[in-house]
Amino acid sequence: MEPTPPKVNAMLPLARVLGVAMCLGTAACQYLPPMPDRPREVFNAPVIARGHLVLPEQLQQITPGVTARADVQALLGSPSQTSTFSDDTWYYISSSTRQRPGRALAVSNQRVVVVAFNPGGTVTEVRELGEGDTRSIDFVSRETPVPGNDRTLLQGLFGNIGRFNPLGGNAGQPSAPGVANAPAR
Length: 185
Fold this sequence. Notes:
By secondary structure, the protein is an alpha+beta fold. The protein has a domain at 42-132. 19% of the residues lie in helices and 21% in strands. It has helices at 12-28, 56-60, 69-76, 153-158; strands at 47-51, 81-82, 89-99, 105-117, 123-129. Strands 1, 2, 3, 4 and 5 form a five-stranded antiparallel sheet that branches. 5% of the residues are buried.
């Protein structure tokens, strides 16, 4: 018996499928949005403004000793935060952020405007806090120990194999510490 020669057209259907896929793939490129002026911006996350941005022109309209609390609220709006134990200091906090994939939130251009009032409700001080006024806080890295064992991912996934008993028993496990299993019926 003679061996049959290989088919010459055996790869033809696969080649046709790949050709159609390539044509569709390149045709889809015409629907992409146009490239920006600077190609680096394609890979950067957008900048998002957060908080209550106070413009310098607005700060110039506040005069210490003259401007009242109601005037400040009408001009700047409600504050982002007030002082902890009294309503004598208002904070207007704003920043620009950028969410970078796989990394922490990048904060840039953070501004804090502080407006202080006297007990009569008149502005006593307007100041702006910058990045030089911030304090670094060291977090405690200790953890509270938890009783039990530390299980790995594989132990968590495969740890219950063989423990299932369709008849409702404990599958060889004691029901409570020091108590023997009841005999099977």
